[in-house]
Amino acid sequence: MTCIIKTTSILLQSMGSSFKSTILALSRDVIFFVPAIVLIANLSRSVVTMLWSSIVADILAFITAVILLRIEFKKMNKIG
What we know:
Blueprint: H1 2-14, H2 18-44, H3 47-50, H4 52-79
């Protein structure tokens, strides 16, 4: 999923949506991963369950990528 997220970020940047690209690039590593690891660490206090935070961050960032890409494609269809 990380490859799809990075590819979508590059695609959005090349289409001229640098703000959306930046949000997507930051979403996995900063917006979703850090709060997930803090929350899971406080709830479980186990290193093994803390590994789930990267999976949670990937899924949420993938959903964000799909939403941003759909918005951009809808905007392209209205123009063309």
